[in-house]
């Protein structure tokens, strides 16, 4: 699911005006004082007007208070378990290993759930929340491009001028509920950064950045000689081994007028305790000892980013090794939920309220650091341990809200199931190129063990249900094996649709930088998206719109459907879709012209996501990220359970939002006016 650490951007930069700001503030307060003095003198002369205004404001406040609330007195609980596969769920239920899922199926309903096309997590969760396809809600892929510049950006977060921008372009079910004064509690739903105003509480999920403004940049210090290859997702530094070493915590970039933007740094000291084979770490009045293979507790850090401003973060250390080589991992630094630099909850104090009641927690939208494992900076065991930490925090949030939840809508998102399947699928697939027959049993059983954890969470929720309450449990898509990486731009080049500036070069760099646009008719970014280099739309487009574009699309579709993997004599592509076939709505114009639905086992490569052009068109997937769902959406349905009877034969993820609206009392007429792409599931 997560494009957690592939970030074309460099995060955000904080602008520090220092002395200029002081002068502006002083002048501003001077103007305010003069204004307030004039207001005071006016009301001093006209006391009757002042009394009337106070009375009028009191009436408005009282009226607003009296009008709040609704007659809706039932509970709707929705649990989102990311990536649960119907194949695994059905098999484990049959064997009696998911008792609570089985019980819910017997009491109500179970079905496979059609997912969005494409079957990407941000696309699917946007479809779940809005009941609309990407052409209406604006979410098509993890990666988006600007056709006028060919620059790439992540689609799950957008910070402009130091302000996060709304990601989902249409209304979500909790907004409809708020209009009817029906309370909603939304815990970590993807693409909710920044949080919107709702009648209830919201904690933002996928899309919340770390303090650098990226989706998760770790830091790694080692005495080991470094590979000259580019590190992805982290900053790796080689240090010289010594009894005492000084390193840095890396904070956000700050730009001061007349100076170059630089990352703020906080030094920390590491003292190696040779007799205990441990490390003592000191910084900002913190001093603690870590053993090899041990995570620290949450640590707090303050970065000075201006004359009167500090940015507070929280993070964890993990000591990989103390001797003979020193290896120290530092997690991406999260915003401190008690005082986040950007608002990450609604109301603003909700993130602090959670921290005060359950303790500090990950605020980064995609907290589990898969890429540190891919880059072999962390092993599988610390990843499992971190996943447990994230689960414990999320479950504590759910339990905290369930205790005070009396009516309305409660949604809670659990994403670790997706992450575990991404990273541990190779242990269960003997045909995967990284399969290890003698691997630890806990790795082989990791996926099914996490399905059991979701079953336990479901059981706890079911205990508190009343007969009139509604419970919906779903996954956004399924899962399967990812054995072979497909380099789409390389395929386009080999088939004469894309050219490099140097026609003799074996490869082309990321971010589309080496492409000769004067000779390129089609290019790929993201995880299956192909764009025609069209005149009048792309900056250097060469393909005429309409008939020429349509002929080219048909030609590419026909060739892609015939793409075979010569090594295994298998078809790479299951189907190819034109944008007008799967996207409709006012944002459909921004969609990719073609989208590839891969067969199981094949997936668009990481290089394709960033617009690179490798030498070969297809190769073995040698990343530990070995399971995925970025296949043809028809091949990876999700699951849905409910304590109510589902009457639709083939329910879709687009059906959930209209179902919730009907449950809170919206009539079919109003639901039809919402322009949903689904319909209510219950009778």
Describe the overall structure.
Helices cover 29% and strands 25% of the residues. By secondary structure, the chain is of the alpha+beta class. Helix 4 (99-107) packs across helix 13 (446-463) and helix 11 runs antiparallel to helix 13 (446-463).
Task: Describe this protein with a few key phrases.
35 strands; alpha+beta; 683 residues; five-stranded mixed beta sheet; eight-stranded mixed beta sheet
Global Rg: 27 Å
The dominant shape is globular
Helix content: 25-40%
**Total of helices:** 19
Q: In this structure, how is the largest beta sheet organized?
A: 8 strands, mixed
Number of strands: 35
Model regions low in confidence, pLDDT < 50 over at least 5 residues: 1-9, 19-23, 58-67
Arithmetic mean of pLDDT:
92
Structural class: alpha+beta
Terminal CA distance reads 33 Å
Proportion of beta-strand residues: 15-25%
Strand order of the largest sheet: 3-35-24-2-23-8-9-22
Q: What is the gist of this entry?
A:
This protein has 683 residues and is of the alpha+beta class.
Topology:
Elements: E1 13-16, H1 19-45, H2 47-67, E2 75-81, H3 86-94, H4 99-107, E3 109-113, H5 121-130, H6 134-137, E4 143-146, E5 151-154, E6 159-160, E7 163-164, H7 173-179, E8 184-189, E9 200-204, E10 218-222, E11 234-238, E12 244-256, E13 262-273, E14 278-283, E15 286-290, E16 294-295, E17 299-304, E18 310-315, E19 317-321, E20 327-330, E21 334-335, E22 345-346, H8 350-358, H9 370-374, H10 380-403, E23 408-414, H11 416-424, H12 441-444, H13 446-463, E24 470-474, E25 480-486, H14 488-494, E26 522-525, E27 529-532, H15 547-561, E28 564-565, E29 570-571, E30 573-578, H16 579-582, E31 594-598, E32 601-604, H17 606-609, E33 618-620, E34 627-628, E35 638-642, H18 656-663, H19 668-673
Parallel strand pairs: 1-12, 2-23, 2-24, 8-9, 8-23, 10-11, 25-32
Antiparallel strand pairs: 3-35, 4-5, 6-7, 9-22, 10-20, 12-13, 13-14, 14-15, 16-19, 17-18, 18-21, 19-20, 24-35, 25-33, 25-34, 26-27, 27-31, 28-29, 30-31
């Amino acid at each position: 699911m997560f494009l957690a650490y592939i970030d074309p951007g460099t995060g955000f930069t904080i602008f520090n005006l220092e002395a200029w700001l002081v002068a502006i503030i002083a002048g501003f307060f001077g103007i305010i004082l003069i204004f307030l003095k004039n207001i005071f003198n006016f009301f001093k002369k006209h006391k009757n007007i002042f009394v009337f205004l106070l009375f009028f404001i009191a009436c408005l406040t009282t009226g607003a208070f009296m009008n709040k609330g609704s007659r809706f007195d039932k509970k709707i609980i929705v649990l989102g378990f990311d990536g649960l596969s119907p194949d695994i769920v059905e098999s484990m239920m049959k064997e009696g290993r998911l008792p609570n899922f089985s019980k819910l199926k017997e009491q109500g309903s179970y079905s496979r759930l059609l997912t969005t096309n494409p079957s990407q997590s941000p696309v699917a969760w946007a479809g779940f929340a809005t009941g609309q396809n990407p052409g209406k809600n604006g979410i098509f892929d993890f990666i988006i491009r600007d056709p006028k510049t060919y620059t790439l950006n992540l689609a799950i977060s957008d910070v402009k001028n130091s302000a996060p921008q709304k990601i989902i372009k249409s209304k979500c079910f909790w907004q409809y509920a708020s209009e009817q004064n029906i309370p909603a509690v939304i815990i970590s739903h993807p693409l909710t950064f920044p949080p919107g105003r709702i009648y209830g509480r919201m904690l933002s999920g996928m899309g919340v950045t770390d303090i650098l403004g990226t989706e998760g940049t770790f830091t790694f210090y080692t005495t080991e000689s470094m590979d000259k290859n580019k590190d992805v997702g982290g900053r790796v530094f080689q240090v010289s081994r010594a009894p005492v070493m000084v390193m840095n915590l890396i904070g956000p970039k700050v730009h001061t007028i007349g100076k170059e933007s630089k990352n703020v740094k906080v030094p920390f000291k590491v003292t190696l305790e040779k007799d205990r084979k441990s490390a003592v770490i000191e910084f900002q009045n913190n001093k603690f000892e870590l053993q090899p293979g041990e995570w620290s507790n949450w640590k707090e850090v303050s970065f000075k980013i201006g004359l009167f401003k500090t940015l507070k973060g929280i993070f964890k250390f993990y000591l990989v090794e103390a001797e003979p080589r020193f290896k120290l991992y530092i997690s991406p630094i999260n915003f401190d939920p008690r005082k986040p630099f950007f608002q990450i909850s609604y109301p603003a104090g909700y993130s602090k309220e959670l921290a005060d009641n359950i303790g500090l927690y990950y605020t980064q939208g995609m907290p589990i650091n898969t890429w540190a494992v891919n880059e072999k900076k962390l092993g599988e065991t610390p990843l499992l341990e971190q996943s447990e930490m994230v689960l414990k925090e999320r479950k504590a949030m759910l339990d905290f809200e369930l205790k005070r939840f009396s009516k309305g809508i409660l949604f809670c998102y659990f994403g670790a199931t997706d992450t575990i399947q991404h990273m541990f699928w190779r242990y269960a697939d003997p045909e995967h190129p990284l399969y290890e027959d003698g691997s630890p049993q806990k790795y082989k059983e990791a996926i099914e063990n996490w399905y059991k954890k979701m079953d336990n969470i479901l059981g706890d929720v079911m205990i508190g249900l009343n007969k009139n309450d509604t419970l919906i449990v779903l996954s956004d898509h399924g899962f399967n094996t990812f054995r072979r990486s497909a380099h789409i731009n390389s395929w386009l080049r080999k088939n004469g649709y894309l050219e490099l500036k140097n026609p003799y070069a074996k490869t082309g760099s990321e971010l589309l930088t080496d492409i000769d646009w004067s000779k390129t008719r089609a290019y790929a970014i993201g995880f299956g998206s192909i764009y025609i280099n069209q005149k009048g739309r792309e900056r250097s487009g060469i393909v005429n719109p309409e008939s020429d574009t349509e002929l080219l699309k048909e030609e590419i579709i026909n060739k892609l459907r015939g793409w075979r993997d010569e090594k295994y004599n298998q078809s790479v592509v299951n189907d190819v879709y034109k944008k007008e076939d799967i996207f409709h709505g006012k944002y459909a114009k921004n969609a990719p012209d073609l989208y590839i639905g891969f067969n199981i086992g094949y997936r668009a490569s990481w290089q394709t996501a960033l617009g690179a052009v490798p030498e070969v068109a297809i190769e073995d997937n040698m990343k530990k990220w070995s399971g995925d769902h970025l296949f043809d959406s028809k091949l990876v349905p999700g699951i849905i359970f409910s304590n109510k009877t589902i009457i639709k034969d083939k329910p879709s993820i687009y059906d959930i939002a209209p179902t919730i609206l009907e449950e809170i009392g919206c009539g079919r007429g109003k639901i039809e006016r919402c322009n949903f792409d689904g319909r209510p599931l219950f009778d």
